[in-house]
Amino acid sequence: MSFHSSPHTPQAHEPPPPSSPPASLAKTIEATNVDWNDRIGLQTHWQNIEKGWQVEVDWRESTHGVGLFALEDIVKDTVLRVGVIGVNLYQFKSIQDIETFCQKRSPSSSLVSSFQDEPEYQARILYVKDYLWGFNPHTDNRGYEQHQSDRRTNQQGGEEGEVKEDRFFGMWIPGNGLNHSVKPNTVYRQTDVGISLVALEDIAKNKELLDDYRRHGKAPKWLRDFAQSHQVTLNFAGCNDFVNIETRAD
User: Fold this and answer.
1) Cross-strand pairs, 85
2) How far apart are CA 78 and CA 215, in angstroms?
3) Entry pTM
């Protein structure tokens, strides 16, 4: 992994369980004909255990569109999904990393003169728009940053006065489908192989699983440039009209 842990970082210390996603999942995803616009249908191409899920969940319509729901009662601190970077977690460090993902083709895709004209390219751009998120390893147990100002740990480089930081930017494949709420019931925890999704509280069967997008932090300049170039919003404060990072739930 390229982002670094902290002695004070809350982590899911459990070793990767036997049902961790197989290393072949990444290749299988690229070799499978999927409709990136069909958010529920895409999930059905693989069994949940193949995707790293440790509990029974499903995807259905919610008040926010498509949502993720528990199919069993879940106890606080249960690892919900095991994420392994390079397998079911794609990490993006630059616009080029995102473009590399978006320019890949499913086996049935037809070749056209420009990637930008391909329906699959546009569908992948929209998938990134909806599922890209940020993870800060320097947080409290609920996933909120320990300080009000962005914590920078690498003082080298940066653009226009910005400095690099060790946040993770990327997305799950397939995406979790967690909708935004200021009262989340899930949290991300860093592990030795990536990031796990963990229950922040007891979750009853049929309850929707929710994330607080404010915990993603503010998008760095390169992500803002990506959003501007493709005229899309992102799930970061300042990149849409529904995430306000100035306030947070205690």
Assistant:
1) 89
2) 20
3) 0.81
| Nearest CA among 195, 234, 189 for reference residue 213 | 234
Rounded mean pLDDT, 51-72: 92
Q: Is the pLDDT of residue 106 over 50?
A: yes
Are the beta carbons of 21 and 82 closer than 8 angstroms? yes
Q: Please confirm whether the linkage preceding 174 is cis (ω < 30° from 0).
A: yes
> In terms of Cα–Cα distance, which of 133, 230, 145 is closest to 173?
133
Bridge partners, residue 137, by sequence:
none
Q: Return the structure tokens found at 112.
A: 């056209």
Q: Tokens representing 25?
A: 């999942």
pLDDT surpasses 60 at 124: yes
Which residues make Cβ contacts (< 8 Å) with residue 35, sequence separation at least 6?
41, 42, 123
C-alpha 36/C-alpha 232 separation (Å) is: 16
| Strand, helix or coil for residue 69 | strand
User: The tokens of 95 are what?
Assistant: 């616009």
| Token pair belonging to 28 | 């299988």
> What is the edge-to-edge ordering of all strands in the sheet holding 89-91?
89-91, 168-172, 133-135
Amino acid at 221: K
Average pLDDT (30-51) is 88
User: Phi and psi (nearest 5°) for 174?
Assistant: -65, 160
Structure tokens at 152: 């920078």
pLDDT at 22: 75
